[in-house]
Structure formats: C-alpha cells, structure tokens
Amino acid sequence: MGAPTPATARFEGLPAWARTLSEKYYSRTIAMFVLFGNVRDLVPLKRDGTAEFLPLSKFLHQGLFGQRDIVLTYDRGGGLTFAHPDMQGDFRRALAGYDSFYGTNYSAGLPRNPDGVLNLLDNYLRLRIADGKKIALIIDYAETIAPAGDVSSMSAEDRNSLVILKRWASNPAFLRADVTLCLIAENQIELNQGIVQHPGVASIGVPLPDENERVDFIREQLKSTALPEGSDVTDLILAKLGAGLKRVQLQSLISHAVQNRQPLTQKFLTQRKKDLIEAESGGLLEFVQSRFDLSMVAGNEAAKKKLQNAAAAIRAGKTDVLPMGYVICGPVGTGKSFLTNCFAGEVGIPAVTLKNFRSMWQ
Prior knowledge:
The chain is an alpha/beta fold. It has helices at 6-9, 16-26, 56-64, 85-102, 114-130, 156-169, 172-176, 193-196, 211-222, 235-241, 247-259, 266-280, 301-315, 336-347, 355-361; strands at residues 32-37, 42-47, 50-55, 70-75, 79-82, 135-139, 179-184, 201-206, 285-288, 351-354. The chain is globular, with a radius of gyration of 25 Å.
C-alpha cells in the first residue's frame, strides 16, 4: 500500500466521528455541526505513533482546529475562552474598536445574556472572515443557549440566540470562508430541533469506546502503574467487563485501585460498573441479579424456546444473529418482569429494568 494522499493524511489518527466531521467540512457544504452523545469523555489524539487522551474541547482545539488562526469556546456559565492568549488579545482589540464605533463599553465586561454575546461574536466573525482568517467557534452546553421547546414558549434571549445560530448555519459567507461552528450537547433531544433539523447543520454522535478502544486506553493507563497485587483482572478482561463505560470511568476505576492499593477484582468491578451505570441513568435504570433461568417459567413454550436460543447465541458471542430487542407486553400480573429476569439468568447477566416506566404501569 502506498503513502497516504494529502486528502487522507489529514484524517490519520482521528476517531471515526472526527473524520466524518472533517470530511463534511471539507466538502464545503456544511459549516455548523452538532456533537452529541459521549461528549464528556476523553478522546484519543494519535500523533507520531503515540496516543494522548484529551477532554473533547481540548481535542477540538489541538486535534481538529490546531491550524486555525482563531479558536474560541463559549458556554453560558464560563463565558468566552481562547485557545491561545494572542487570540484573546485580537478579540479585545476588535472589541475596543466596536466600543469606539457604537459607543458601548463591552471591553469592561461582556453581556451576561447569551444572545448579546452571540451578537458580538457575529460582528467579530464577519470582521475576521473579511481578513481571511481561519476560525473555529465551539459552543458548549448548547442546549442552555438554544433549548428544546416551542419558540412561542421560549424567552426573548433564547429566541434571539436561536435566530443567530440559524442565520450562521445558512450563511454562504461562512461556507466560502474557513469557518467551523461546533455546538456540543450531551443529549441531542435537549437542543432545539430547529437547529438539529436545519439543512445547514450536520449532527454527529460521539460513541462510547468499543472493546478495542477500551483495551488501548487501559493499556496506556497501566503503562506507568500496574494494578495492585491481588487484582484478578487483566487488561483484556477489564476491557470486556467495562463495556458501556466511558474512558473517564475506566480511568477512575484504575486510579481508585492504585491510589488506595485495593486489588481490582471482577466482583468489585461488576458492582462498581452497576453503580456507575445506574448513576449515569439518573435513577431510571436498576440492575437486578437474577436467581432464576427459563426452566423456572411454566408454559409459554414457544416464547421460552425463542429466548433460550437467543441466550445461547449471546453466550457464544453470535450477536449478529439476534434482533435489536424484544417487546414483551401484556396486562399487569402476567409475568413479564419474571420472564425478563429468567432470560437474564439464562444468559448469565444482570437484568436491567426501567424503574420509573415499570412503576408507572404497575
């Protein structure tokens, strides 16, 4: 295989979702992106054969937008921050010019309302686009600036912010110039659908790490410090049992064991993973360790046979032959929850129940 072409070389070392963003950006058809999903995790940045794991905002600064002339981040609580002090100095000079022209005093303090800040940024972006600057603007916790809901029920400042963001998404000057706008929201549903469904916006999900990615991360963590004596998990076992966890959660598990000199065992890991996922769900999920299997179910032979075959496939790792899920419905008291628990026991995994959903119907 030959050397990578310039078109592909720029994507080397990037996660799949970041490559997708880059490809869409270089197509010159999209300037605004919504990043959602696993956005509060560490992201691998691979350079010169080594991997560095960074928070998403830092990854965007260094990995995707490291060659930009101006990279700035805004969120409602933290205000404006810049990737480099020189960029902040340039913004302050532009703000002083704005104050001089309009008779304002924003150099002494930016507006507290987001739409006021976005208006200033609108002027600044246009000014620097005219200068030919390459710009990246990252808006974190975007759901607090353009929240989901009907426009008629939104506050005036939220409506103004929504209008500005929509205007940016369809601005042809932004597409022609080297400008990228990234909105970050953990849950896409919490962001206003007028943005999510805008034809000038691309939504890109940041997934949880898969097993291979977990192995890479765990091995990197264990390079400097081994797990305490008495630990009965290897890097491969930890990666497999850590399915569904973020890198920061895996890092916390390893750090807890090392700092407290507490062996990391499969029993402790299983319990801790249960606690982490239940906490992450906001109390909606509950893990139940089943004491039963499908042999305990009377009747329903066709359903039992189907679930027994599915359990055998899961135990054998043949998940490609399985459906996406099963819908078990029926009146209260017909054994739906018991059947589910027995299926989990047949597979050998904890059953996961939706606590609020179950209590609502029972």
